[in-house]
């Protein structure tokens, strides 16, 4: 009964009534000129349509119209081709073919456009299906577009060149012979207490690329989905999720998805990704979609990792898994494969005998090389003894549900795409008889993921469409396993910065790292986001260790005072308040005191008022009313919060956004500079958060024609963002465009800045 309920949690099949609903909803958005919203709704309609039907062809054709309005001409042409391939009705061809001709003209492909126009003229002259006056108007429009393109010089393709530069910058200058995907600046070492780690073999400068690794496995996070209720609106959800915007295989941001033919959930950026996903894993996952969404992303990732093992030596993998089952603890490596010391001496002394009989480091191959493959994934620690019995029971139950469904569907999908060196006739019966072995692999991966899963993040633009100055936030896009990145140990104040482009993780030095120092990564609890007690609790509960990094050591000594971005101040003298239940002014000459509960209550009330004002700004309406609310919040905050309190920074940032919406760049810049001071205190002057805020300030100075201030801020932002992202970052390229534009302006007379 439990498994039956699980399988009904989500419906991911093709619903015959959905295409019409989504097409009509998309048409409404189109009429409202919300072309991006229309595109997403048409995509949902495509996802529920069967191949070679009017439904799918109409959805593709309508989506091409929305893409045309968005200026996505190449993608529009692809959708027109898809609509034709699925049998777009002959009676509706005229408008779509004229749209195709307009796209070709705009793209400068005049010969193809002329051929389409000629074909249309012949077609409609013969059949006389279009009024002459209507056709003359359309033909006149195309002629005008032709003249416009002919008058232009052939533009140079600067964007692809910039994109290429970005990816070149992501490549390692000199690959490591010991660790794949890592630079030669690091080496793999082991420690009896900390396990495996990466150590610098030379002095490393800020911004140097240390690791560039493609995820062994990644699964797009579906996003929050509320429970189903009866009714049309809940049955066919019109909200936009990451699953509607990012390819389910490569995680590329895509405005026009290509869905799986067999389910309504999986969507991809291209037909190539559709085929690759099907060959690698989706042929097995397609019928399990509802169950996988119910069980969660960790269970999905565990299954996909096991399916991807088929691309390697299946016989070898099966033997290893059989070995795990024969162990007393089936989810831990054999004791002889536990962490050993690697024979590499950083101090320059004589190396240990490389011909020792000791086995290589856990996860390495027989030659001692650590690669980003299934062998390395299999040797990530699952911490079986640390997990609670309840967690292990739920993991085992989830895997049992998957195995039952796989068994019911047959094991054909588990035995396709084996290496050609494997005798398929011999392997298939063994795998069919040993499903429990693959179940053990899935269970092991589920237990590994709590400590080894990496959140794949992306930067998304936020705010209303009317905002000239863009704001951004980091969102979790997917869950992945990166065997090399997993070698990095934690610090609450790390010396690296991790970023992502699609499924590729890049690790850069965020500060100078000396030879012999460990390369450290933050697992989430960062000193700028959490107090020491909260960090320790989080790391202990999720990762099963007590952190003793320098930030925690220092934090324990000053824990009584608390971080400045959470501090209250004395309303009389402005000094910080200290204490537990009753807070006393820190000034020796002031006797003021206040109840912590009372101050916390005031803080919560203030947060609600700020949230109300921010909601007005997000809606793009009543900006003056939002300014009034925020100004009141600002005065109230000054009376009991420290100048570096995070809420003070939020208020100043919101005021900067409000004045930018009104075009008052002087006031906007003044408020954002106050917000910057809070960000700098909390995160540091060279932090990635500081880089994003400097980018916003550069936009404000740029729009206010404050040229010296803009150029100075652009330089600061570039310096910070370059360290964390490299040259391929979107914000860095935008800063370059702003700088070029400002430098090309003629000199202006001296005058007041914005």
Please render the helix and strand layout as text.
Elements: H1 2-7, H2 18-31, H3 35-47, H4 54-69, H5 73-85, H6 93-106, H7 110-127, H8 132-151, H9 158-169, E1 186-191, E2 195-200, E3 209-214, E4 217-220, H10 232-235, E5 258-259, E6 267-268, H11 271-285, H12 289-295, H13 297-308, H14 314-326, H15 374-378, H16 389-409, H17 424-433, H18 435-452, E7 454-462, E8 471-481, E9 489-490, E10 496-501, E11 504-509, E12 520-521, H19 532-543, H20 550-557, E13 577-579, E14 582-585, E15 593-595, H21 596-618, H22 623-638, H23 646-662, H24 665-683, H25 688-703, H26 707-725, H27 730-744
Parallel strand pairs: 9-12
Antiparallel strand pairs: 1-2, 3-11, 4-8, 5-6, 7-8, 10-11, 13-14, 14-15
Helix pairs in contact: 2-3, 2-4, 3-4, 4-5, 5-6, 6-7, 6-8, 13-18, 14-18, 16-18, 19-20, 21-22, 21-23, 22-23, 23-24, 24-25, 25-26, 25-27, 26-27
Assigned CATH architecture of the domain at 564-744: Alpha Horseshoe
CATH superfamily of the domain at 564-744: Tetratricopeptide repeat domain
* Helical fraction: 40-55%
List low-confidence stretches. 1-9, 152-168, 225-234, 328-359, 416-432
Q: Give me the CATH fold name of the domain at 564-744.
A: Serine Threonine Protein Phosphatase 5, Tetratricopeptide repeat
Q: What is the global morphology?
A: globular
Structural class: mainly alpha
Main β-sheet, in a few words?
A: 3 strands, antiparallel
| SS element count, helices | 27
User: What is the rounded Rg?
Assistant: 30 Å
Spatial order of the strands in the main sheet? 3-11-10
CATH C-level class of the domain at 564-744 is Mainly Alpha
Residue fraction in strands: 5-15%
Mean pLDDT: 80
Total strands: the figure is: 15
Distance between the termini: 68 Å
Region (Disordered): 343-362
Protein name: Protein-lysine N-methyltransferase SMYD4
Catalytic activity: L-lysyl-[protein] + S-adenosyl-L-methionine = N(6)-methyl-L-lysyl-[protein] + S-adenosyl-L-homocysteine + H(+)
Subcellular location: Cytoplasm; Nucleus
């Amino acid at each position: 009964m439990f498994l039956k309920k699980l399988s009904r949690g989500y419906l991911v099949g093709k619903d015959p009534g959905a295409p019409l609903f989504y097409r009509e909803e998309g048409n409404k958005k189109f009429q409202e000129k919300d072309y991006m919203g229309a595109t997403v709704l048409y995509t949902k309609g495509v996802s529920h349509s069967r191949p070679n039907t009017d439904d799918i062809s109409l959805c593709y054709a309508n989506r091409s119209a929305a893409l045309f309005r968005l200026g996505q001409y190449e993608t529009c042409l692809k959708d027109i081709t898809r609509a034709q391939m699925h049998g777009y009705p002959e009676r509706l061809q005229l408008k779509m073919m004229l749209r195709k001709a307009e796209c070709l003209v705009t793209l400068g492909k005049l010969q193809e456009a002329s051929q389409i126009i000629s074909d249309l003229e012949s077609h409609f002259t013969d059949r006389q299906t279009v009024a002459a006056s209507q056709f003359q108007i359309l033909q006149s429009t195309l002629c005008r577009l032709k003249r416009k393109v002919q008058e232009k010089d052939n533009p140079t393709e600067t964007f692809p060149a910039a994109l290429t530069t970005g990816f070149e910058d992501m490549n390692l200058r000199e690959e490591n012979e010991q660790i794949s995907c890592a630079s030669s600046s690091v080496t793999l070492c082991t420690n009896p207490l900390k396990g495996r780690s990466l150590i610098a073999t030379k002095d490393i400068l800020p911004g140097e690329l240390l690791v560039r690794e493609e995820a062994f496995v990644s699964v797009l996070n579906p996003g929050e989905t509320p429970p189903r209720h009866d009714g049309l609106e809940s049955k066919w959800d019109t909200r936009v999720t990451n699953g509607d915007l990012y390819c389910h295989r490569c995680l590329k941001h895509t405005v026009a998805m290509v869905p799986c033919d067999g389910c309504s959930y999986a969507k991809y950026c291209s037909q190539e990704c559709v085929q690759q996903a099907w060959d690698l894993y989706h042929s097995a996952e397609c019928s399990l979609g509802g169950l996988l969404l119910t069980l969660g992303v960790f269970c999905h990732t565990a299954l996909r990792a096991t399916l991807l093992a088929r691309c390697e030596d299946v016989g070898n993998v099966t033997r290893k898994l059989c070995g795990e089952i024969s162990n007393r603890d089936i989810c831990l490596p054999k004791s002889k494969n536990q962490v050993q010391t690697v024979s590499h001496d950083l101090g320059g002394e004589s190396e240990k005998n490389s011909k020792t009989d000791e086995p290589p480091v856990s996860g390495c191959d027989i030659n001692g090389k650590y690669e980003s493959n299934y062998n390395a994934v299999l040797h990530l620690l699952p911490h079986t003894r640390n997990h609670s019995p309840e967690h292990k029971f739920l993991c085992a139950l989830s895997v049992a549900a998957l195995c039952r469904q796989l068994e019911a569907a047959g094991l054909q999908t588990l035995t396709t795409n084996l290496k050609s060196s494997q005798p398929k006739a011999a392997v298939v019966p063994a795998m069919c008889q040993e499903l429990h072995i693959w179940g053990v692999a899935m269970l092991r991966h589920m237990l590994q993921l709590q400590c080894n899963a990496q959140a794949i993040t992306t930067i998304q633009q936020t705010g209303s469409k009317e905002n000239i100055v863009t704001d951004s936030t980091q969102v979790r896009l997917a869950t992945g396993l990166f065997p090399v990145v997993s070698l990095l140990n934690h610090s609450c104040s790390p010396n690296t910065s991790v970023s992502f482009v699609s499924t590729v993780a890049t690790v850069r030095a965020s500060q100078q790292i000396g030879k012999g120092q460990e390369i450290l990564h933050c697992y989430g609890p960062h000193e700028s986001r959490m107090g020491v007690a909260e960090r320790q609790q989080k790391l202990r509960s999720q990762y099963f260790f007590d952190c003793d990094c320098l930030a925690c050591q220092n934090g324990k000594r000053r824990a009584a005072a608390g971080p400045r971005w959470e501090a209250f101040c004395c309303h009389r003298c402005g000094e910080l308040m200290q204490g537990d239940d009753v807070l006393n002014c820190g000034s020796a000459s002031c006797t003021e005191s206040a109840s912590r509960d009372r101050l916390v209550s005031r803080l919560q009330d203030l947060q609600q008022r700020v949230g109300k004002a921010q909601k007005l700004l997000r809606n793009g309406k009543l900006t003056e009313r939002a300014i009034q609310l925020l100004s009141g919040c600002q005065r109230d905050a000054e009376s009991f919060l420290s100048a570096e309190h995070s809420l003070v920074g939020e208020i100043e940032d919101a005021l900067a956004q409000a004045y930018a919406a009104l075009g008052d760049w002087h006031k906007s810049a003044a408020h954002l500079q106050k917000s910057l001071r809070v960000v700098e205190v909390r995160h540091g002057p060279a932090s990635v958060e500081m880089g994003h805020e400097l980018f916003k300030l550069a936009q404000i100075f740029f729009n206010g024609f404050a040229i010296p201030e803009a150029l100075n801020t652009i330089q600061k932002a570039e310096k910070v963002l370059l360290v964390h992202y490299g040259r391929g970052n979107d914000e860095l390229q935008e800063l370059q465009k702003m700088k070029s534009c400002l430098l090309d302006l003629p000199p202006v007379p001296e005058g007041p800045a914005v």
